[in-house]
Every structure is written in structure tokens, then in C-alpha cells.
Design a protein that fits this description.
heterodimer, A: 293 residues, mainly alpha, two-stranded antiparallel sheet, 15 helices, 72% helix, globular, B: 271 residues, MetI-like fold, 2 domains, 75% helix
């Protein structure tokens, strides 16, 4: 081996060993494990074929999980994206208010999700939580409820907390996209007296198509990644009303020690993520301007 | 009119971000029983003892130290290991180097929970569960994709003549990397270091599975555990103090390195 090759190999080796051992091998083993009956660390593995996948098809928790993630993706995702777009557009001003919001909008993204979850648990507290307190103060006391203890409201409540946590990322994304709009276009629009809503519709929105696509795919990835928020706020309850793929995998794998079944769930989760992100990517692929001209 | 609408929106949005956080900070100085009994009242007398009881009785001092050790040790291994790999992948093309790079970047695409069961079994076999050493090794491995991606970008952007000049001057491959190229890529180290540092400080999913023992818990685990045991009691002073202890360090770091953090987040998104 010549010196260059030796150098390259020795510089790649530490990263390759760590990444291979702790990331790649476990990832591949997830496929393997999903076909074996395997309990406990030292016990034997027994080939069971696609048994777990068959069980999964009739598992009544799985459709619930998919419905919850669909709700978060469409409801929560749409809210987050619309709010982010509006905020990013409004942040172009250089007022004191805009500077203040630019300073704080990413706070929820950088603090620990666990802290966010704990905080929202208290905001939603049935007695004395800020949300019920606010409703009572404005005369809507009848709407006050135990948000996270109610099977109907727990998921929307988690969704609101998720939007609070997630929206900053998309503001940043859209703000970067708006910054990337060529200055001449903005100047021309200003000269024509094109501001506010008109400017948004005719310039900002169409110019942001590529960022929009990234944002939509990221929403899907982030929704499928929801774990800490639910694990801390509701632990999937009440009565599985907020169960997500990852909380269910965690429960099956580490509370019930059903390693094979948890692995099969993980594989199905991966398949769903791939399908959803590819579908969204395809839906938002077209450059709308390019198609028109 | 339009200006007004946008100002109203920004005000409401800004308040929705800041009010809950300020409420947490304010509540952390109130008597535990008053936090939900009179949520809007200001603390009559600041209860600094909440912080003392979080730090001592609730063992946040230990969680804090564990988080500090885990994050710092991870960065100390991650940055050199990741930079070395990123450097050769960016500047020493060989047959299959694109593929190797792709395999490393693949880790950014999938949620780490997809490998969690085998990872847990492996760590148990190695005796590395409930261990900060184990946690650090796993953290390094799962942070490599992003680090190699960003550092690779920095190394690619450096002018090639610099490395050639260094080699002509008699620097070997090693000296060229450590003495010339790595120092030039320092902005990249800062970006990846801060971004990874924040992520590691907040990391929950992997630690939740790999750590059960209280002595080894990091801050997010300790906070979640304290919440689970305390939520249905009414003495929340220490819990809110704990929340502040978890949030403040990252907010301070974010405040001083806003642009860098945003650059790092965008780098991962807009490829």
C-alpha cells in the first residue's frame, strides 16, 4: 500500500469503525431481527419468517398510529407551514418588533424537547394551567378541560405543542428562501408599488417553490420523528390516543421486550416514511413558473 | 393597514414564543404550591431555594455534570474523527469514495430509532448500557453524518493550491491536514461544534433507551423522570427550577452564535 492510500485509510478508519458498528450494523440487523423470535440478550434466536409482519397487519394499534401521524402531518404540518410563511414574510421589515421576533423565534427549536414537553404539560394542566386560566378569564370557562387526559383533545393538544416547537425551523427556512430572491426582483416590485399581500402572492410565494418542497419533506420527517414530546407529555395515552410509531416501537421493544415485533414495526415505519416523503417530494417537484412559461 | 396586520401578527407570534418561557422562569421563583394555584401572580418573594433543591435533592447537579461530560467528550472525539474522514473524502478521491461518502450521509436521512433495538442489544452485550462511555460512543457515531457533511463542504471550498503549497514545503499528508487545512476550516468546526453541542445537550431518544440508572442520567432524562414522579404532587418549585437549568445554557449559547446555529440548521436542509 502506498503512503497516500495508507493515509486515506487511517483517516477514514476511526469514523468508519464507529459508524459501522453503532449505526450501519444495527440498521441492517433491524431487518434481520424482524424475522426472528428473540427475547432477552443471551437467549437463542428462532426463525419465525414473516410472522411479525402478519401480526402487524391485524394489530389494531397500527392504524391508530398512522391516523395520528396523518393528523399531525396534515393538521400540524399545514399550521406550521402557513404560520412560518406568514411570519417569514412579515420579518422582512426592519422594525424593532421584527428584530425582536428574529431574535427569539428559534428559541423553541433549540431548547430541549423534553423541556418543551414538560412546559406544555403544565400549560395544559386542568387546574391552574395557563390555557384553562386564559379560557376562564375570557369567559370561555366551559371549554376548559383536562386537555391531555381527554381522548378527543389529547392529540390536537400535542399537535399544538408540536407546532410551537417546530415552526421556528420553517420560519428560518422560508426566511432564507426569501433572502435568496434576487434583489432586482424585489426592487422592481417596490418601484411598481407592489407590497404586502399582492407582493406575497405574485413574488414571494412563486419564488419559494424549491424551499417549499424542502419544507414539506422536512415536516414529514419531523412528524415521523416525534418521540420525546409524546413520551413525556402523554406516553401515548390516554387509551393510545396519542400513540406514534416511535412510542409504540419503544413500548413493544423495551417495556414488553418483544424485540422482533418492535423491529418489524421499525421496518414498516421506514417504509411509510419513504413512501410519504417520496410522494410529497413528487407532489411539490414542479417549478410552477417553469411550467407556465 | 397591511403594515398593521403584519405587526399584529408578529406581536402575537412573538408573545406566543416568549410568554410560556417567561412563565416558566417566573414560576421557578415561586413557592411550589403557588405555581398552579395562582399562575399569573408574580413571585411574592423569590424562592431561590427551588434552585438549591433542584440542584441537590433532585440531583440536577449530577444530571448537569453527566450532560456536560457526555456532550464535551462526544465533541472532543467527534470533531477530529469527523474532520479527518471529511477531509480525505473531500480531497483524496479514490475508487468508491463517492459511495463511502454516500453511506456516511445516509445516516442523516433516517430516524435513529430505526436501529434502536439492535443497538440496545449490542450495547447490553458490550456492557455499555448505563454508561457514559457507551453513550459517548453512540453519540459520536450518530453525529458523524452531519459532521462529515458540513466539514466536507468546508474542505471542498478551501483552495487546493494551499494544500499543494504545504506539501511542496515538505509537509507530509498529516502535517498538511493538522497544521494548514484544519485550522483554515475552523469556521466549520465552530458551526458543527455548536450545532452538535446543542443537539447533544438536548438528546433524549438514544439516552432514554441506553440509560436507566439515575447516576448516569443526563439532564433531559432527569427532567423527564422528575416530571413523571412529581406531576401529580403539588410541589413543583424544584421541577420548574430544573426546567430553567435545562433551557438556559442552550439559549445563552444560541444567543451568542445565532447565525452559526442557523447556518448549521440550513446546511442540513438545503443540500
Amino acid at each position: 500500500m502506498n503512503r497516500r492510500a495508507l493515509f486515506v485509510a487511517s483517516y477514514l478508519a476511526p469514523a468508519a469503525v464507529l459508524y459501522g458498528l453503532f449505526v450501519l450494523v444495527p440498521f441492517v440487523q433491524t431487518f434481520q431481527l424482524s424475522f426472528f423470535s428473540f427475547r432477552g440478550v443471551s437467549s437463542e434466536r428462532r426463525w419465525v419468517g414473516p410472522q411479525y409482519y402478519q401480526a402487524l397487519a391485524t394489530d389494531e394499534v397500527v392504524p391508530k398510529v398512522l391516523a395520528h401521524l396523518g393528523f399531525l402531518l396534515i393538521g400540524g404540518g399545514l399550521c406550521a407551514l402557513v404560520m412560518a410563511m406568514v411570519t417569514a414574510h412579515a420579518l422582512q421589515e426592519n422594525t424593532r418588533l421584527a428584530r425582536f421576533v428574529r431574535g427569539v423565534f428559534l428559541f423553541p427549536q433549540v431548547v430541549s424537547v423534553v423541556a418543551v414537553a414538560v412546559m406544555w404539560q403544565f400549560l395544559y394542566a386542568p387546574n391552574g394551567g395557563l390555557i384553562n386560566g386564559f379560557l376562564r378569564a375570557v369567559g370561555l370557562g366551559g371549554m376548559a378541560k383536562s386537555w391531555l387526559g381527554d381522548t378527543t383533545w389529547a392529540l390536537p393538544a400535542v399537535g399544538v405543542a408540536w407546532v410551537w416547537f417546530a415552526v421556528g425551523f420553517y420560519i428560518m427556512l422560508f426566511a432564507a428562501g426569501i433572502k435568496g430572491i434576487p434583489a432586482e426582483i424585489g426592487e422592481a416590485a417596490s418601484l411598481e408599488g407592489c407590497f404586502g399581500w399582492k407582493r406575497f402572492v405574485s413574488i414571494t410565494w412563486p419564488m419559494l417553490w424549491s424551499v417549499r418542497r424542502v419544507a414539506v419533506v422536512y415536516v414529514a420527517v419531523n412528524v415521523f420523528n416525534v418521540f420525546a414530546l409524546v413520551n413525556v407529555m402523554t406516553n401515548g395515552g390516554p387509551a393510545r390516543a396519542t400513540e406514534t410509531f416511535l412510542t409504540y416501537i419503544y413500548e413493544q421493544g423495551f417495556s414488553a421486550s418483544k424485540f422482533g415485533y418492535a423491529s418489524a414495526l421499525a421496518i414498516v415505519n421506514l417504509a411509510v416514511i419513504l413512501v410519504v416523503t417520496f410522494a410529497l417530494g413528487a407532489m411539490f417537484r414542479k417549478n410552477p413558473e417553469g411550467a407556465r412559461t | 393597514m397591511k403594515k398593521l396586520a403584519s405587526n399584529v401578527w408578529l406581536t402575537l407570534f412573538g408573545l406566543s414564543v416568549v410568554v410560556p418561557l417567561l412563565w416558566v422562569a417566573m414560576s421557578s421563583l415561586k413557592k411550589g404550591a403557588d405555581i398552579l394555584a395562582s399562575p399569573w401572580s408574580l413571585p411574592t418573594q423569590p424562592q431561590w431555594s427551588n434552585y438549591a433543591s433542584a440542584w441537590q435533592q433532585a440531583e440536577f447537579s449530577r444530571f448537569f455534570l453527566n450532560s456536560l461530560i457526555a456532550s464535551t467528550a462526544t465533541l472532543l472525539i467527534l470533531l477530529p474523527v469527523g474532520s479527518m474522514a471529511a477531509y480525505v473524502l473531500a480531497r483524496y478521491p479514490f475508487r468508491g469514495s463517492k459511495l463511502v461518502r454516500g453511506v456516511f450521509l445516509f445516516g442523516m436521512m433516517f430516524p435513529n430509532f430505526l436501529a434502536i433495538v439492535p443497538l440496545y442489544l449490542l450495547m447490553s452485550q458490550l456492557g455499555l448500557t448505563d454508561s457514559l462511555v457507551g453513550l459517548v460512543l453512540v453519540y459520536v457515531a450518530y453525529s458523524l453524518s452531519f459532521t462529515i457533511f458540513v466539514m466536507g463542504g468546508f474542505f471542498e471550498a478551501l483552495p487546493g493550491e494551499l494544500a499543494e503549497a504545504a506539501m511542496m514545503d515538505g509537509c507530509g499528508h498529516h502535517a498538511t491536514f493538522w497544521k494548514v487545512m484544519l485550522p483554515l476550516a475552523r469556521p466549520g468546526l465552530v458551526v458543527t461544534g455548536i450545532f452538535n453541542g446543542i443537539g447533544l445537550w438536548n438528546e433524549y431518544n438514544l439516552a432514554k433507551v441506553l440509560v436507566q440508572k439515575q447516576e448516569v442520567m443526563t439532564l433531559p432524562l432527569g427532567l423527564a423522570r422528575l416530571t413523571a414522579t412529581q406531576f401529580y404532587q403539588s410541589d413543583w418549585g424544584a421541577l420548574f427550577a430544573g426546567l430553567v437549568i435545562v433551557m438556559v445554557p442552550v439559549l445563552v449559547i444560541y444567543w451568542f452564535f445565532k447565525e452559526k446555529v442557523q447556518d448549521a440548521m440550513l446546511a442540513g436542509a438545503i443540500k
